[in-house]
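Operator note (shift B, R.M.): manual run for Integral membrane sensor signal transduction histidine kinase requested after the automated queue skipped it. Running by hand, logging everything below so the morning shift can see what happened. Input copied straight from the record, untouched. If output looks odd, do not overwrite the archive copy; leave it for review.
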Amino acid sequence: MNSDNSTADFTPHAQRRPPSAVKRKPLYLIRILCVLLAAACAAAAGALAFRHVESGLLTGSLISVCLAVAIAAFACFRAFAETERYVRLYLEGNGTESVRRIRLHYSAATEKLLAAQLESSDEAFQQEENRRRAQYLALQNQINPHFLYNTLEAIRSEAVVAGLSTVADMSETLANFFRYTVSTMSETVTLADELKNVRDYFTIQRFRFGDRIRLHVLIPQDSPLQFYRLPKLILQPIVENAIIHGLEDRVRGGEITIDARSTPRNLILTVEDNGKGIAHDKLIEMNRQLGMQFSSAERTGKQRGIAVFNVNERLRLLYGMHCGLTYCSMPRIGTTVEIVLPPAPESCR
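Run finished. Output pasted below as returned.
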């Protein structure tokens, strides 16, 4: 009887029997240890975040630290879970070669998952750094125009008294333009506000160019799109760029047309001019740079409108990489700029 029992213990069927309660004990210990360690890391990340939320000091860097701690907790859990898996495979009778093949497959999947988590953390950190950089550049290039439009208002008053209506109108329009730009860049405005600012800017340019340039806005005044909200100073830099680089050399007949179309996925504003256009190689390079991350794109004074890149990056920082600017152009025909924005809400359709 004893020899029979001894023989039965080494049959393949016996090797695949569920492990005994004694053999399962290491698995329970491993599970308890990994759960406790993961819980400790997660609790530390949560406490750190909660403490700084209460104090109002939650920054991008701190968010990255909390994410790193959470990822470490996840990695610990997966590492111990993987160890538990190997022990279970051995206890179930798998040979060393079988376990090795399973381990290679599982390790690759684990490394891929952790790499994705770390990449997500890096992207969050990079996005915060890009936002800080944009804010710094905005502050660096800011001027304080209060004294300027107060002076313009004084000039307008003197011009009215002197009967110089043209000077008075120009001073008033310029003062309105500066009032619009003086507030914080983070403020959102309606499309109607943006279009009014463009008209003020164009009026100022008409004092210089006269009838050589004209502006056409094809968006109806009563269109619901007029109430669509967007960051301020999106359209005016595009129009300015069109005048300087497209229409400045025209003797007559220069035209800029602004239109909008709404799709289920986006609102697309277009600014079209009939200027001299952009050479094909320069157009490709410009669109390439518009598609680059802000931190990796080199900006030089020789580029076609630094303000254009500023608009593009502000839109991407606010709405994501799917929004921004795209240029289409043909030499001696003209240029069209598409400004891709988030879809219009139901109230604006």
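Quick read of the result: The mean pLDDT is 74. The chain is about 60% helix and 10% strand.
Leaving this for review. - R.M.
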